[in-house]
Every structure is written in C-alpha cells, then in structure tokens.
Specification:
90 residues, globular, 4 strands, single chain, 3 helices, alpha/beta, four-stranded parallel beta sheet
C-alpha cells in the first residue's frame, strides 16, 4: 500500500525544481495532488507526470502567491476539488 494513499496534497511551485520533485514524490506514494504555478499551463507537464506516477487525482491551479486573496481562493478551491487537504507544501 502506498504511504500516502487517500491523502490530498497541495504543492506550490510545482512546475519545476524542488516543487515538481515533491509533487512527483507524493504522486508516486499515491496522494491526490493539487499543483500550483504562476499559470495552470505552466504546471500541466507536471500534472501529466503525476498521473503517470499513479496520482489518483490531479488538479492544476494558476496563482501568484504574492496575492493573499488569490491564495485563499486557491486553497478553498483545492479543498473543494480534492475533498480536503492533508498536506500543503509552500
């Protein structure tokens, strides 16, 4: 059984580097993932990779994390889309 099965994670900066690596690790371990980057298009490749690695659900979000109101909205949307959040990586 994967270590993160039935868990839901939201990862910012998921389009590249450490954020992408974390998102892929969560997917490999069975977590549903919400992936955040400056635009949903920028994180689409990571989303496809997470699906290949076994994430049961993948959601993409575009967000400028400098805008507090937008951050709150994306968190609310992710909670609604994924049915809650267990892990947030910023």
């Amino acid at each position: 059984m994967p270590a993160l099965e039935n868990r839901k994670a939201l990862v910012t900066g998921a389009s590249r580097g450490i954020g992408r690596a974390i998102a892929e690790a969560f997917a490999r371990e069975g977590a549903a993932v919400g992936l955040v980057a400056t635009s949903a298009e920028r994180v689409a490749d990571t989303g496809e990779r997470c699906k290949e690695l076994g994430a049961p659900e993948v959601r993409l979000y575009g967000l400028d994390v400098r805008n507090g109101e937008d951050c709150n909205n994306v968190i609310k949307e992710a909670v609604n889309d994924l049915g809650g959040l267990d892990i947030v990586v910023n």
